[in-house]
Amino acid sequence: MWIENREVLVNGKLEKRYCFVERYKSTLTGKYRKVSVTYGKKTPQVVKAATQELERKINKALAEESEFVQTATLSQVSTAFLEQYQKRVQPSTYKNGALFIKKFVDDFGHDTIISNISQRSLNRYFNDMLYNNERDLTNGTVRAIKNKVSVLFDFAVTYGYLKDNNIKKVKIEWKNENARKRNQIENKYLTQDEYRKIIDDCLINGADHYADVFKLQYLTGMRFGEASGLRVQDVIKENGKTYLDINHSLVFLSSPSRYYLSDSTKTFAGMRKIILSPEATKIVERHMRNKDLDALLFAYNPSAPHFADQKPLNINNANTMLKRIIERQKIDKDVTTHYFRHTHVSVLADMDVPLRVIKDRIGHADTNITEKIYMHVTKKARQDFEAKIAQIDNFL
Known about the structure:
The protein is of the alpha+beta class and 396 residues long. It has helices at 44-70, 74-88, 91-108, 119-131, 139-158, 178-186, 192-204, 208-220, 224-228, 278-288, 315-328, 338-350, 355-362, 367-388; strands at 2-10, 13-25, 32-39, 235-238, 241-246, 250-253, 258-261, 272-275. The protein is 51% helix and 13% strand. It has a 3-stranded antiparallel sheet, with helices on one face. A 3-stranded antiparallel sheet has the order 4-5-8. Strands 6-7 form a two-stranded antiparallel ribbon. Helix 2 runs antiparallel to helix 3 (91-108). The protein starts with a strand and ends in an 8-residue tail after the last helix. The model has no long low-confidence stretch (mean pLDDT 87).
């Protein structure tokens, strides 16, 4: 306890008061809070009385916190968690995580006391996601939701809302998805014919800027945000070759709608320098002309020379346009901008480029799907070879 001297105005006169202050550690936040009481004197008797009153205030505050912890609702805990989560992850990661958390809270009920959620109800919830005909989600989607909810429950344990994380005890009867996975890999990238149809459709419908950014994705394996965020100064010329310094990404946010260039790529592994093919170099050089160093290569108004005047390409608009294109072109795949990245992997695999080199070129974050596409393409190449080898007898 300490004493702070203060002066207060009483009947037009300044009088001295003594503020007795004590601090305590909150069981909710782990941070220190203060309580205080003010007297007109600081005699031994007053000091004793102040000490007792401060102790009562602290005990009352801690009791209220304890009661709150025991009755904390999903809505209260998730709000506190998301506020902290948003500060430590990339915007795109937060967006997906918040979506899963809010869905979980909606399903269980905002006013549900988090400590009352049983392991049994959690088991039923996640298994229902897999086998309920109305949901029928994939193993991957359910696993992603479960992981995010588990992070929420870890937060609840850390701050005393829960004693244990029951999510970690959940046992899920996963689906047998072998057949679906085989088909899924083939549907994760484009054939040359499908790629050409999409580019031609863009050009025919006056979306040249999208045609060029999709081409560059196809030729480099970049994410859309990395490609749409490229600036003139990110193009490097060395020894007659052209490289891209990929060190940030264009990020769009909503509520309110805004965008900015991030300080880094989506993942640390995404920070990289890649060489361009002659065709990719032509695309880049064409979009560099008459622009400031900090201007974007791609924009809805391609001739704008200054960043402040440019209208950046929005990934949501790009994906909406792709959806219309695949309907027009009758392409039976749920194509998004990420498909050009996957297609780049398939092309390099077909060229016998080593897997580790491909991973370095595209940034390691997509390791799982990258490896699956690589193995699928190389396996298909071996099967084609085995089917053709018998024809060698015709040359005897």
